[in-house]
Amino acid sequence: MTALQRWIALFGAASFFFLLAALFWLLRTALRRRQRRLIERLVGQQADTRPGSRQAVLRLRGNGPRQRLQRRLHQAGIGVDPAAFLALCGGAALFVVLVGSLALESLLAGLVLALALLFGVRFDVNRRRDHRLQLMARQLPAALEMMAFSLRAGRGLEESMRVAAEETEPPLAHELDRCHHEYTLGRPVEEALQQLDLRWPQVRGVHLFVEAVAVLKQSGGNLVEVMGSIRDQLRAHQAHRAKHRAMTSEGRLSGSILLALPLLALVIQVVLMPGQLTEMLGESSGRMVLLVAVGLWAAGALWVSRLTRSVR
User: Does any domain span residue 80?
Assistant: First the structure.
């Protein structure tokens, strides 16, 4: 294959990939828009729009691909716009395809390297996101306790959130400080807390706290006692989660060893017999075998991660 043919094949494959991606997101966006219209028709355009109502939550919630990606990046602590993040990933993938195809003289090898890069980026984002979600869940009981002490001292809920933000660590400190800042700019505290719930829907304690504030603001009640009950429930859940992780530690270690063994075998083969890998990459059948092996390893990694996932 000449250099011109490689370039044509490269840009043809990239164009085909982006065309399929564009069609996929167009169909997905159309389906999401249709579901949103159906929900609005069922709820009614003249429904209650108070901060705690269902209509207000539907208005604030974003379920499109851009909103979900933005929420995931925010939870991972990556301060990049979703469009810029996708552009960076796409540019890096095209660069890897180009360099890999020219260096290895195989378009298939370049595509495999690009897929490995994208898989690595996704894995890193998910790892950061899971870490911050767990950190947020661990910080919330202590923050609720500090807010309860502040409420007993006579401060309001908004001032209590500011005090808790000063005494806690990120990411919860940034979120509470953001809610207090939005309140000082004129947004009702219920809407600010609903936005917090929409940014962190996986954190169970945040949802319980926001629902309690929304209900008690409308119906009245002792917010301090409710926050104490939520705090005790969250601590019991954390104790159960720690017990679950201890009981499944052996399975997670076994899964990590199983995932590392193929990579270790590949490294040993490259070090001891580098000619065999080069010879395999030189043949189309060998490249196909390697591609199938990488696909099977990725499927196994996904399966093992699902089996050993911790409870939240």
Answer: no
User: SS3 letters for 186-219?
Assistant: CCCHHHHHHHHHHHCCCCHHHHHHHHHHHHHHHH
Task: State both tokens at 298.
Answer: 């990725």
Please state the φ and ψ torsions of residue 89, each to the nearest 5 degrees: -65, -45
First to last CA, the chain: 52
Cβ-based burial of 240 (10 A; exposed 0-12, middle 13-18, buried ≥19): exposed
Residue 89 lies in a domain: no
Q: What is the spatial distance between Cα 303 and Cα 188, in angstroms, rounded to a whole number?
A: 44
DSSP 8-state assignment for residue 311: P
pTM: 0.65
Backbone angles phi, psi at 50, to 5 degrees: -65, 160
* Domains in the chain, number: 1
Residue 298 structural domain: 251-312
Task: List, for residues 116-130, the tens digit of each pLDDT value.
Answer: 888 888 889 988 998
pLDDT digit string (tens) for 131-182?
A: 999 899 889 999 999 998 888 888 888 888 888 988 888 889 999 998 888 8
Closest C-alpha to 86, from 8, 22, 171: 22
Q: Among residues 127, 99, 123, which one has the least CA distance to residue 111?
A: 99
- The answer as to whether 233 is a domain residue is no
Instruction: With respect to residue 259, please indicate whether it lies within any of the assigned structural domains.
Output: yes
DSSP 8-state code for residue 79: -
